[in-house]
Design goal:
Elements lengths: L9 H19 L6 E2 L8 E2 H23 L10 H31 L2 H32 L4 H6 L2
Antiparallel strand pairs: 1-2
Length: about 160
């Protein structure tokens, strides 16, 4: 068994915050995106789809970094229930990182109504539930339980 790192690596932190920005952009402006006109392509390409593909590729890289190098352990200062909740939430985020772009692609290019329903009526609202829970727990780590977990993703 290998030792877990004390903090998140610089690539992990950069991936985290890049994905935060891209995901929020797509969640906040899902149908208000512009299109790219690329020579050689018959139809314009939606920036929303390009961002979704970027999230998917970054999620693959992020997962490899997580599995290959590890992440800091949950600090013992938080109650055990919240540590389990946080670990479960991290894996749910990864599920969404993959499911959201894939269902979007299936809905757009495959014209599959069930994929559109999953994308817009199931995963998207669940993302909006999970994000404030994640932020609240990060703030609880910092200010309630006085752990240094937040600083590990902010500064390393």
């Amino acid at each position: 068994m290998r030792d877990l790192p004390d903090t998140f690596s610089l690539p992990q932190r950069l991936l985290h915050w890049t994905m935060v920005g891209l995901i929020l952009l797509n969640l906040l402006f899902p149908q208000k995106m512009w299109y790219l006109f690329i020579p050689g392509f018959e139809q314009p390409i939606s920036v929303h789809i390009v961002i979704g593909l970027a999230v998917l590729l970054l999620a693959v890289l992020r997962l490899f970094l997580r599995l290959g190098f590890g992440v800091p352990p949950e600090p013992l200062g938080a109650p055990w229930f919240f540590r389990v909740f946080a670990r479960t939430g991290q894996w749910i985020f990864y599920l969404f990182f993959f499911a959201m772009p894939l269902t979007g692609l299936l809905a757009h290019y495959g014209h599959l109504p069930f994929a559109l329903t999953l994308h817009t009526r199931v995963i998207q609202p669940l993302f909006w539930v999970l994000i404030p829970i994640h932020v609240s727990l990060a703030l609880a780590h910092q200010y309630l339980w006085k752990t240094d977990m937040l600083s590990k993703i902010l500064r390393g």
